[in-house]
Design a protein that fits this description.
Layout: E1 3-10, E2 13-19, E3 29-35, E4 44-46, E5 50-52, E6 56-61, E7 70-79, E8 82-83, E9 87-88, E10 93-94, E11 107-113, E12 116-121, E13 129-136, E14 144-148, E15 153-156, E16 165-173, E17 176-177, E18 184-186, E19 206-207, E20 220-225, E21 235-239, E22 243-246, E23 256-261, E24 268-277, E25 283-292, H1 306-329
Antiparallel strand pairs: 1-2, 2-6, 3-4, 3-7, 5-6, 7-8, 7-9, 7-10, 11-12, 12-15, 13-14, 13-16, 16-17, 16-18, 19-20, 20-23, 21-22, 21-24, 24-25
Length: 337
């Protein structure tokens, strides 16, 4: 086995030197290798060492090393089929050179799970880390990202079921960050989540609130809609800040119906949003804009207040009673002769 193995950073990689095996038989060959820490692959090597001062042998490993990255370095001796144990350098050695920015990665697969997307891509040279990013195509659902060092896949969590996401990957190394990969798409599965804000241009759901009415906080509203996948769950939320009020299950005909109670603290203009999955597995939104009155005061905006009507009716009844009472108390006329 080679002895006294040394390695140092070289302008174009890592230079390795060692003492030859004493009384080496004819035909013995030496090879030096550098591999990422913890790897079980042989790594990158140099196979034609030259004589160096002091009777040592040495060569420079430059091919495929990432400048600025650290490597395990070792040397082996081989004579025919016989191969020595590796002789390692103590510690890690940094490869020299100026690294270019990594090239854009190439995505190989995007696999969907419940609220997640697992992204895989091909290896990229001169890279120390990768970042995968998912952006919702609807512009309102939450996105996410994941980052790994040398792995070639990662899982993005916290995504909305049924939403189409555009996924891209960038590579970062000593020479900078790559352009983003060509985007791929994926649609997470599972129960949908309410978006952070009402989606624009979504169809309107049905309800028992007629035009011009202002339902009061604390009152009940029945709403319904169709076009959803049977057996899935629809999430009904009230905005501005989304507050989930119901999770009805879609019937066999693709419709849902839910009775919700308007929270007592809501007043003014708000929007109900029903979020679910359509038969093709994509997200479907329905909306219902409403104007909410303070608790106990909800009325059609075009009609007179009930309180005023009640007071007016009470006054009329009181006046009628007084007139009857006054008539009964009036003295009868005296007969004349």
């Amino acid at each position: 086995m080679p002895t006294n193995v040394r390695a140092e950073t070289a302008p174009t990689g890592i230079h390795v030197s060692w003492d030859a095996v004493q009384a080496s038989p004819p035909g013995i060959q030496y090879s030096a290798f550098a591999r990422p820490p913890g790897s079980t692959d042989p790594g990158f090597g140099c196979f034609e060492p030259a004589s160096e001062p002091g009777g040592r042998l040495g060569c420079t490993i430059s091919r495929d090393l990432d400048p600025g990255a650290e490597y395990e370095v070792y040397v082996v001796a081989q004579n025919g089929p016989d191969r020595s144990d590796p002789a390692f350098v103590d510690g890690l050695v940094t490869a020299g050179g100026t690294a270019p920015a990594p090239a854009a990665p190439t995505i190989t697969t995007v696999r969907a799970g419940q609220g997640i997307l697992t992204v895989s891509w091909e290896k990229v040279q001169f890279t120390t880390s990768f970042t995968a990013t998912a952006v919702a195509a609807d512009g309102v659902s939450p996105g996410g990202s994941c980052q790994v060092s040398k792995a070639l896949s990662c899982t993005i969590t916290g995504l909305s079921a049924g939403v189409t996401y555009r996924v891209s990957v960038t590579a970062t190394g000593p020479g900078g960050t790559s352009p983003a990969s060509t985007a791929a798409t994926g649609i997470p599965t599972g129960v949908p989540t309410a978006p952070p804000e009402p989606p624009k241009n979504a169809p309107t759901m049905e309800s028992d609130v007629t035009h011009g009415e202002t339902p009061a906080a604390g009152s009940h509203i029945t709403m319904s809609g169709d076009g959803f996948k049977p057996g899935t769950t629809v999430v009904v939320a009230l905005y501005s800040e989304p507050q989930v009020l119901a999770r009805p299950v879609v019937a066999a005909n693709g419709s849902f119906s839910a009775v919700v109670t308007i929270p007592a603290t809501y007043k003014g203009e708000h929007t109900f949003v029903a979020t679910g999955i359509n038969p093709s597995g994509k997200v479907r939104y329905l909306t219902l804009p409403v104007t909410i009155a303070a608790a106990g005061t909800g009325l059609p905006v075009t009609g007179p207040p009930i309180t005023a009507l009640a007071l007016f009716g009470l006054a009329m009844v009181t006046a009628g009673c007084y007139a009857v009472f006054a008539t009964r108390r009036r003295p009868r006329p005296t007969a004349t002769t």
